[in-house]
Design a protein that fits this description.
556 residues; mainly beta; 3 helices; globular
Length: 556
């Protein structure tokens, strides 16, 4: 089925009565909503603008608030749960709403203070195109949420719960099932760079949120945020505009979009709708505030990245105060290309996994390609010779105990291995080391290791890499009888993170210069490294001070 089917005959449809609708080929409102019809156009029913795509989709936008109040596909109403509409944030409230048709496109424009929001229907498509332009902080705009009716799509997965049967265990948004597994809207578990769409399918109908390129969002390629949720009350699908949970960057302003609500015959949305592929030439003449078409954008292309560890994927990110982008580097030689960027000067960051290992700047000019010569990675901490290393430097806790579960579950989940337990270097230490340590859960983890006589005769640097922290938790170390100073806390997100599916904060490396006098002189004895999480703030259980680990090593 072509997603970009065009109708050769187009006309605006006016009139809101049943007779008028019938005369134009549109059906009257039924108990299930407005039935689909072949005629492309729009009507005014007095309360809403009613847009018919001429395919199988009819949707309504409130003339007073700009809310999406109805979404009917093949005669079935999908919009609405709990008496709520689909909208920016929790609804804009009183707004100025207008509509216009330009050829095969109908555009609804919503103005609320300095914020502008748009819906578009294209002839012959079962898609709702959306844009949101937040100019400043005068109105909080963290998301667009599509609220869908209950009982249509399957309610399964880590982001689905039953309010009538499950038990709230944290902050009103984390739930435990009777069997001990945990669920939350936070547990979709996917980085923004790893998905193009999110939604649900019954097998015969699919309803998807196809994300924008997120150039005006924040957090970078590895950010995890709300994607969807479901319970007995209904379904939510999200496009994130700026979300504060585990956020590492300031809010960006300007136009984000298009993002889409796409309805299908059960399958995934067409890849031609994805942010990297979607044809937006038809948007250029619509007058959308803040829109910059392909002609006003530039591209960066690099011939390769030298000094890579080929066991890891590499991502090249671009960021400034106005926009963010990213692209994957080729596994063969590290070549990369990032098209459709707004003009400006960006910080270019090469990531090994999720760890920044090289930075430079690059300037993007509209209508041109900025070509870069080979970049050479010079800041990979894994290249430093080490006596021992637990994990590896990749910016994630992925190798450690429980790490794979923690993006889709609460730490108290029954599936999690015991958070306590000590570690012996040379005996499965990476799998045994916990991905997170909290002051009130598993504080005081011990790491046992031996040194040769030559190694014990010298001072060594101990490095501990972390990926985020909660309430300023950071590691203080004891080596045998030697105790380190308490390190200063690095800048980290101020919200929950370790319990809401995210280890992504600001990667930071703590270094401890351990004197030769700290080591055991008997080479047959184990040295004991003790890790304590310290903080000036207090909490209990999994909301006590904590931190997530990337790597630990003792340098030669």
């Amino acid at each position: 089925m072509s997603t970009y089917k065009r109708h050769l005959t187009r006309r605006r449809v006016l009139g809101a009565t049943a007779a008028g609708l019938a005369a134009t080929g549109l059906s009257a409102v039924t108990g299930q909503g407005v039935a689909s019809a072949a005629a492309f156009g729009y009507t005014d029913d007095g309360t809403n603008y009613v847009l018919n795509t001429g395919a199988d989709l009819v949707f309504k936008v409130s003339k007073s608030t700009g809310d999406l109040t109805s979404l009917v596909h093949k005669g079935t109403e999908y919009q609405g749960y709990g008496g709520m509409n689909s909208h920016v944030e929790s609804g804009l409230g009183a707004s100025t709403v207008s509509i216009a048709q330009t050829g095969s496109t109908i555009l609804v424009s919503v103005a609320h203070g300095t914020l502008r929001h748009y819906y578009a229907a294209r002839s012959g498509e079962n898609n709702v195109y959306l844009w949101t332009n937040k100019a400043d902080t005068s109105f909080t705009a963290t998301r667009y949420i599509a609220r869908l009716k209950p009982g249509i799509f399957p309610s399964t997965g880590a982001d689905a719960w039953v309010e009538g049967g499950d038990t709230v265990i944290e902050a009103g948004d984390v739930w435990r099932q009777s069997g001990g597994q945990t669920r939350s809207k936070h547990y979709s578990g996917v980085r923004v760079m790893d998905y193009d769409y999110v939604g649900y399918t019954t097998g015969s109908v699919g309803l998807w949120m196809v994300r924008s390129n997120h150039e005006k969002a924040s957090g970078g390629p590895f950010y995890r945020s709300l994607l969807r949720h479901s319970n007995e009350g209904g379904v939510g699908l999200y496009e994130i505009l700026h979300y504060n949970q585990s956020q590492t960057e300031a809010m960006r302003f300007g136009l984000q979009g298009p993002y889409l609500l796409a309805l299908t015959a059960g399958g995934a949305p067409s890849s031609s709708l994805f942010a990297a592929n979607v044809d937006t030439s038809w948007v250029d003449g619509l007058g959308i505030s803040g829109w910059v078409g392909r002609g006003g954008r530039g591209r960066v292309a690099g011939v390769g990245i030298a000094g890579r560890d080929t066991a890891y994927p590499y991502t090249v990110g671009f960021a400034n105060a106005q926009a963010q982008y990213w692209t994957s580097a080729a596994a063969s030689n590290g070549a990369y290309s990032c098209p459709n960027m707004l003009p400006g000067t960006y910080t270019l960051t090469v990531h090994k996994g999720e760890l920044a290992v090289h930075t430079t700047t690059v300037t993007v000019t509209a209508g041109t390609t900025t070509a870069l010569n080979t970049l050479t990675v010079a800041n990979d901490p894994s290249t430093a010779p080490a006596i021992w290393r637990i994990g590896n430097w990749d910016g994630t806790p992925g190798e450690f105990k429980n790490a794979r579960l923690m993006t889709t579950a609460h730490p108290s989940d029954v599936r999690a291995a015991a958070w306590t337990g000590n570690v012996v270097v040379g005996n499965g230490e990476t799998a045994a080391f916990p991905c997170y340590i909290w002051s009130d859960v598993n504080d005081g983890v011990l790491v046992y290791f031996k040194l040769t006589a030559a190694q014990a005769a010298a001072a060594h640097t101990l490095r501990i890499g972390v990926t985020t922290a909660y309430i300023n938790g950071r590691p203080r170390v004891t080596v045998n009888d030697w105790v380190s100073a308490i390190p200063a806390p690095p800048t980290q997100p101020s919200t929950r993170s370790l319990t809401t599916g995210s280890y992504r904060g600001n990667n930071h490396t703590f270094t401890y210069n351990v004197p030769a006098s700290a080591w055991k002189t008997d080479t047959g004895q184990y040295n004991i490294l003790k890790l304590n999480v310290v903080s000036g703030s207090t909490g209990t259980g999994f909301l006590s001070a904590g931190t997530a680990f990337d790597c630990l090593d003792l340098l030669v």
